[in-house]
Every structure is written in C-alpha cells, then in structure tokens.
C-alpha cells in the first residue's frame, strides 16, 4: 500500500458532508500469528500511551462457539495490530501488557466474554455504544456514531463475514482494522459531550457496572426461543420442538457449526406442526428436503419418534418458566391496582427519560419497574424504593432520578368501578 493510500481522505468543502473512511493511517499490517510476532506486539503496546481501542471478530451464524477469531487493537505510540488468537489459544500476555490502560470497546457486552476466553480482561472500559445511548443518539452503531460525531463514513460490508475463514482475505482485514482506527478519537469527542451534558458520572457508573456484572446465566428452556414457536399449538408438538432442538444442538456443538446451518428453525416448527408418523413422511416435508437436513435424517426421526412416545406427564408446559410477574396485559383483570401502579410508573420514568434525552430502558430496566409495581414493598417510602432499585442492579444515578417518582407511583390505585 502506497503512502498516499494510507492517508485519511481530505476535508470536504461542504461541512455537512461525511468523508469516506477507506484507508488506514499506517497501512495494513500482517496478521500476528507467530510467537515472535506476538512478542513484538506485546512490547509495542506495553510501551504505548493512553487508552487502547479493542475489538474482536466472531463467526456468528457460521460457528457454534462464540470465540474470537480476530482481535484488533490500536494505541497511541503503538499503532494498530491484528492478532489471530487461534494459533495461541491464550493471549493473557497481551492482556497483561495493556491491563492498566482504559480499553475502548464498542458494545462491550458483545466482546468481553470472547476476550476473557483468550485471557484478555480489562480493569476499566469506555463503551462507545453505551455512551452514545446516554447522549441520546438515535443510532448507536459504530458506523453511525463515527459519521455523526467525527464525520467519517465507515465500511460495513464485511460485518457478517465468516471470520473463522483462513487465510482471512485482505479486504476483510482492512475492514477489521478500520473498526479500531477511529475509536480513540470517538472516545475523546464523546467524553467531551458527556461532560457538557452533565452525564460523565452516569457513564462512569455504567462502565463500572459492565465490568462488575456477574456472568450471564443460561436461560432456561433455550429451545423455546426457536423462531416461529407461535405456530406450535399443543404440548406434544412442543415436545417435538424440544427434541429436535436438542438433537440439533448436540450435532452443532460437536461440529462447531451454527445450529441454523444444520437444520433451520423453520424445519423444526414444520415438523412439530405436521407431526409426521414415520420417516418417509418426514422426508417429504419441504424444509427437510435440503442437503443439510437430509444428512441427519435418522437423528431427526429418532428425536420426533421419542417425543411422540413421551408420557403426558413428561411433556413440556405450554408457557416458559419465569420467576417474575405475569404479562402486563393481564394485570388489569388480575390486579387492577397493580396495573394502575405500572401505568403511573412507566409514564413517570418515560417523562424523565425524555427530559434527559435517554432511551427509557437505559434509565431503568423495564423488568425492574414491572417487579416493583406488581409486588410493591409493604411500606413503599422513598428509602425502601431506593433499596429495592439497588438490589435489582440500578446504579446510583438511576436511583436518584427515579426513586421519588416510583415511590409516588406505588400509591396510585385503580379507579373504583361504577355500580351502574
């Protein structure tokens, strides 16, 4: 790549025009996939200064695992690096080299787990996506924020690529390197906005909460998230969905292939709705005529046959297990006062969110509001409500903004029904 190709595009004459971010400042470096190259990167980033822009690419939609197949970094004085974690398995030496620096990550919740899997765990983070939400930007994707805040148009054509591909094509690598090219500048500009709007303390609390959050527990009955489940009408058909989902999951995990590439959700739902009586009938279903479905036909039929023979007592329940309140649409009939409390609480929190240019869900979790309204404290004063919010993960800035209005909402009751 020539020096001219490694420069950013010139400033446009029209200040409202965004510039295409097509080239890399330092050119495209080689992928780090040897011990000697990794040692050089560790030394370079340890010697750099300031925060570190970090990103990771997975192969979602292609692989079963959520592992990182490429890690991108950039730091002042260190330049950019593209590290292939697959040959190493462990990148803790690289993580240790930058552990004292702030890590700038866009949508940190998406990348922290796969980074931790290879030994890279930050002590402090700056999440540009979350910061964008706090500032009220309507679109908080990286490309949108870079365009809105810095005036550059980013390339996003390889966002859904199969990053487990080896060797990785050069255009994909340029795309990946560009993802960290502007993160440091974006972070600086966004911090300035947060401070101007009095939201810097909020952001610091949110970033700390990301790192202190416990690992996500697996959701119960993951098979219930099969797309198209609304077409499944009875418990026997639910058992077929469960059996096929679990059979597919075992194959996918063993082969490290995305489950949908082995058998699409549409096929599972079609089989559950049709309830085939034998293997020949199953093979005639439209969704089972593809090569992927046909390869494991014996497994699919055995799963369906097992579900067909289950005793009634072993069939799954119609609804998923849930430890929270019932769906809000049922409250008016089951507990009119709870419905009135929820309506008042939602309206009050919505007004505060609008006044501060925040998405309501970033001001307070909707689930927390529902739980508070459905089962309020016996004596719903301000201090009791604040304690409830903290126990449900609310940060202090959220407690301070919403505590009083929620305490007031808990005193609301449903209008008395007319006797006429």
From TrEMBL:
Classification via SMART domains: 35EXOc, HRDC
Pfam family name, one: DNA_pol_A_exoN
InterPro entries found in the cross-reference section: 3'-5'_exonuclease_dom, Exo_C, HRDC-like_sf, HRDC_dom, HRDC_dom_sf, RNase_D-like, RNaseH-like_sf, RNaseH_sf
Membrane spanning residue stretches: none
Residue ranges annotated for the HRDC domain, each copy included: 234-314
Alphabetic keyword roster: Hydrolase
Source domain of life: Bacteria
EC numbers on record: 3.1.13.5
GO molecular function per UniProt: 3'-5' exonuclease activity; nucleic acid binding; nucleotide binding; ribonuclease D activity
CDD domains xrefs: RNaseD_exo
Any one Gene Ontology BP term: nucleobase-containing compound metabolic process
PANTHER family: RIBONUCLEASE D
Protein name from the UniProt record: Ribonuclease D
Organism the protein comes from: Kribbella italica
């Amino acid at each position: 790549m020539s020096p001219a190709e490694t420069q950013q595009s010139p400033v446009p004459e029209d200040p409202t025009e965004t510039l295409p971010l097509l080239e890399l400042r330092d050119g495209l470096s080689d992928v780090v996939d040897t011990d000697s190259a990794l040692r050089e990167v560790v030394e370079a980033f340890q010697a750099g200064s300031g925060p570190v822009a970090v990103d990771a690419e997975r192969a979602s939609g292609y692989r079963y695992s959520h592992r990182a197949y490429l890690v991108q970094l950039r730091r002042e004085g260190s330049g950019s690096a593209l590290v292939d974690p697959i040959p190493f398995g462990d990148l803790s030496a690289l993580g240790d080299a930058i552990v004292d620096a702030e890590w700038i990550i866009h949508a940190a919740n998406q990348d922290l787990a796969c980074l931790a899997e290879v030994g890279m765990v930050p002590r402090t983070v700056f999440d540009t996506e979350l910061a964008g939400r706090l500032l009220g930007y309507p679109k908080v994707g990286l490309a949108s924020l870079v365009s809105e805040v810095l005036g550059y148009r980013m390339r996003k054509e390889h966002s859904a690529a199969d990053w487990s591909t080896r060797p990785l094509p050069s255009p994909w690598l340029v795309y990946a390197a560009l993802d960290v090219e502007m993160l440091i500048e974006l972070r600086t500009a966004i911090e300035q906005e947060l401070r101007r709007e009095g939201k810097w303390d909020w952001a610091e609390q949110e970033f700390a909460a990301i790192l202190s959050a416990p690992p996500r527990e697996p959701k119960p009955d993951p098979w219930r998230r099969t797309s198209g489940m609304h077409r499944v009408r009875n418990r026997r058909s639910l058992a077929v969905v469960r059996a096929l989902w679990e059979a597919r999951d075992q194959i996918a995990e063993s082969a490290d292939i995305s489950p949908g590439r082995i058998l699409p959700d549409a096929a599972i739902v079609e089989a559950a709705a049709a309830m085939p009586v034998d293997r020949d009938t199953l093979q005639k279903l439209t969704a089972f005529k593809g090569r992927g479905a046909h390869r494991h036909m014996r497994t699919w039929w055995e799963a369906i046959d097992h579900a067909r023979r289950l005793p009634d007592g072993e069939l799954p329940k119609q609804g998923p297990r849930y430890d929270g309140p019932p769906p809000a649409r049922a409250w008016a009939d089951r507990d009119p006062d709870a419905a009135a409390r929820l309506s008042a609480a939602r309206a009050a929190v919505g007004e505060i969110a609008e006044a501060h240019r925040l998405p309501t869900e970033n001001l307070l979790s909707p689930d927390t509001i529902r739980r508070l309204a459905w089962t309020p404290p016996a004596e719903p004063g301000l201090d009791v409500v604040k304690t409830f919010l903290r126990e449900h993960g609310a940060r202090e800035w959220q407690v301070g903004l919403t505590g009083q209005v929620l305490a007031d909402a808990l005193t609301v009751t449903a209008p008395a029904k007319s006797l006429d």
